[in-house]
Specification:
The chain is mostly helical. It has 4 helices and no strands.
Length: 144
């Protein structure tokens, strides 16, 4: 009797089809359904009775008239974003003209600029005296 070569695949498809028949039409939802409970929320909190409206507050009059302008206790730092004033009006930057100083006859020239040191960098002795670097710099001394 011949053996079915695709038997595991057919069996798996059959099991998947049987499982599909058992599934619901609507997918599973984790959203909690509200069922209302026994009492309404307003009854539980005691808000089912009408609450009377509050009486409007009377406006307070200032105890005295101020004779001077308001000055804050801690004024902010000055600047366009930290002041009570409006933004300042736009002003263009003035042009800068350079004027050359003409040498005056009879006066000595100022002393020339002197550098504080004559070298910019110096190799460290550990690098300079390394045998490998010495062989590269002076190959004739290390020839065998």
């Amino acid at each position: 009797m011949p053996d079915d070569y695709n038997y595991p695949t057919t069996q798996a498809r059959k099991e998947m089809a049987d499982a599909k028949k058992l599934e619901q039409e609507k997918p599973f939802s984790q959203r909690a359904k509200t069922w209302g409970g026994f009492n309404k929320d307003k009854e539980v909190y005691g808000e089912d009775v009408p609450i009377p409206a509050r009486a409007p507050k009377t406006e307070m009059k200032p105890p005295m008239e101020q004779e001077f302008a308001f000055k804050p206790a801690k004024p902010p730092k000055t600047g366009h974003a930290c002041t009570f004033e409006k933004f300042p009006a736009y002003m263009e930057n003035p042009l800068k003209f350079t004027q050359r100083k003409m040498p005056v006859e009879g006066e000595e020239n100022p002393p020339a600029f002197k550098k504080s040191k004559n070298y910019s960098s110096r190799p460290s002795p550990s690098v300079v005296t390394n045998v490998r670097n010495l062989k590269a710099s002076f190959p004739s001394l290390f020839r065998r």
